[in-house]
Amino acid sequence: MTGNSDEPVFVRTGGQWHYNARNRVGLVLIAVTAPVVAGLLYAYAGSTRWSDAELRAAVHRAAAAVESRPRPAYALRGGYAGILRDEVHAAGEGPPHGARVEPVAGSGPADRFEVTTPDTGAAYCFSVTPPERELPEDAHGRPSSERVRLTVDVAEGPC
Q1: Considering Cα of 137, then 115, then 117, then 54, what sign does the dihedral take?
Q2: Neighbouring C-alpha atoms within 13 Å toward the C-beta of 16
Q3: Interval 95-149: pLDDT, tens
Q4: Which H/E stretch holds residue 151?
Q5: Where are the domains of the chain?
Q6: Where are the alpha helices (DSSP H) in 5-136?
Q7: How many CB atoms lie within 10 A of CB 96?
């Protein structure tokens, strides 16, 4: 391995192309390829998992987004869980998948939902008012087009 620049950078052996260790550029490519690929794989793995900080930020941004604009009552009848989940994923924190928003049983002054991910041990509790059962209805008992502003309280920990 003298590092002869007259040698080609790539050589073909048995139908396969590979770096030529006898060329200086080929030797540098051999040395650089493995750390670069390892770094890219590490960065990719980090971008596919939620961290505690990402989940915390996404939950608070989602609550603010839900509160920021009133929606027609008929648009809320599908359930708050889907709206909350979509807002958590749209918050721009963490990967665009993996957050779970599950309704918590029980009746009270607010509908409650627990937010978790398989990647963290953290949990957050959304309390949404008005409860879905109290949304305005028209004369026929169907959800009305009246705009409703939701209030979302966030608590750290399970509901």
Answers
A1: positive
A2: 3
A3: 878 889 999 987 678 899 999 999 888 999 999 999 888 888 888 888 888 999 9
A4: strand 151-156
A5: 10-47, 52-156
A6: 24-47, 52-68, 73-76, 80-90
A7: 10
Q: Do residues 66 and 152 touch, judged by C-beta distance below 8 A?
A: yes
CB burial class (10 A; 0-12, 13-18, 19+) of residue 33?
A: exposed
pTM: 0.69
78 secondary structure, DSSP code: T
69: nearest Cα among 153, 154, 151, 155: 151
**Each residue's pLDDT tens digit, 36-72:** 888 777 766 666 788 889 999 999 999 999 999 899 9
Name the DSSP letter for residue 133. Answer: G
Tally helices (H) and strands (E) across the chain.
4, 8
Residues 20 and 26 sit within 8 Å (Cβ to Cβ): yes
